[in-house]
Amino acid sequence: MSKKIIIISGDPNSINSELIYKCWKKLDLDTKKKIFLVSNYDLIKKQFKRLNYKIKLLKVDNLKDVKNHNLKIINVKLNFKNPFKVSYKNASKFIKNSLELGHKLALDKSVNGIINCAIDKKLLGKKNIGVTEYLASKCNVKNNSETMLIKNKKLSVCPITTHIDVKDVSKNINSNKIINKLNVINLWYKKKYKKKPRIGVLGLNPHNAEFKRNSEENKIIAPVVKKLSKKGYKIKGPLISDTLFIENYKEFDVIVGMYHDQVLSPFKTLFKFDAINITLGLKYLRVSPDHGTAVNLIGKNKANIISLMRCIDFIKKNKK
Questions:
Q1: Alpha carbon of 257 to those of 154, 182, 249, 260, 303: distances in Å?
Q2: Total number of domains constituting the chain
Q3: Distance between CA atoms of residues 66 and 75, nearest Å
Q4: What pLDDT digit, counting tens, does each position of 155-169 carry?
Q5: Are residues 80 and 148 in the same domain?
Q6: What stretches of 112-239 show up as alpha helix (H) in DSSP?
């Protein structure tokens, strides 16, 4: 039996319904049969009507209806008046319930993985928490080993710290955290691609090649690289982040940085929307498009579908 694909519609105040519709129109019938959308049926119906989108929707209660190639929606309750201006309180409750349901469905052996469309992270209700951390807590992930990997066919990047302020980065990096995440990355590449990835680890500070005595490079990062290199990892670092992405990034499969924008900003400059966000270390495969809610683009027919299409293709090809 073909494995199913769960798509969580995400933030109701977003371009997500436009992306879902545009992708749906491009999918073949076999893929459509595999897809189940976790959302609110009435919300999607009214958003599609507002955007003048015409495709057949089907409300279902579970994952059993695999033969139907209409857009199957597993309903999540949501109170709203304007389909694109749902209140913060209602949107927050809807997002949490959708992620909870998506998490439970992802544990089913018939599911190949889940895709969550973009959300405003404030809707999760806790500072510095994104979907990566939220699902890691649901999966009882230990030792901060959940790992955000932004990936396309040419390169992957990973931030050691994710959704925290830059002023807090230094006190949130340590040897164990870096080693745990590098272990997860190395094991994932060996399992999925049958190879050891070439890993480049960035330093934290400007001019980090100077190796100042009390720097994070000298006390934390360089010793980690040395330790893992002795264990057989294909790893180099600390590397200088202000020049690596000009050309030398091509030497690596994965670039690991110390904070979110240190690796995501240059990656998106190079590849724009051609990437997916994968969470490694969960009990199941979870991916998401590598962009935000883009509220400013609602109703303008300008949303770029490439990242969501890459997510669907990646889940389709996944082997549990």
A1: 17, 11, 12, 7, 29
A2: 2
A3: 16
A4: 999 999 988 899 999
A5: no
A6: 131-138, 175-193, 216, 222-230
Whole-model pTM above 0.85? yes
Q: 255, 155 in Cβ contact below 8 A? A: yes
Same domain, 293 and 195: no
**What tens digit of pLDDT does each residue of 121-153 get?**
899 987 768 898 899 889 988 877 789 999 999
Which residue carries 């209660």 as its tokens? 61
Q: pLDDT exceeding 70 applies to what percent of the chain? A: 98
| Residues spanned by the domain of 118 | 1-141+282-320
User: pLDDT per residue over 183-213, tens digit each?
Assistant: 999 999 999 999 999 999 999 988 776 777 7
Do 129 and 1 fall into the same domain?
A: yes
Q: Are residues 13 and 126 in the same domain?
A: yes
Place of tokens 């510095």: 128
pLDDT confidence of residue 320: 59
Tell me, yes or no, whether 116 and 1 share the same domain.
yes
In the chain, DSSP finds a helix count (H) and a strand count (E) of 11, 12
Residue 52 and residue 89 share a domain? yes
Strands (E), the chain: 4-8, 35-39, 57-60, 71-75, 111-116, 147-151, 156-159, 198-202, 234-239, 254-257, 276-280, 286-289
Q: Clarify whether residues 129 and 6 are in a common domain.
A: yes
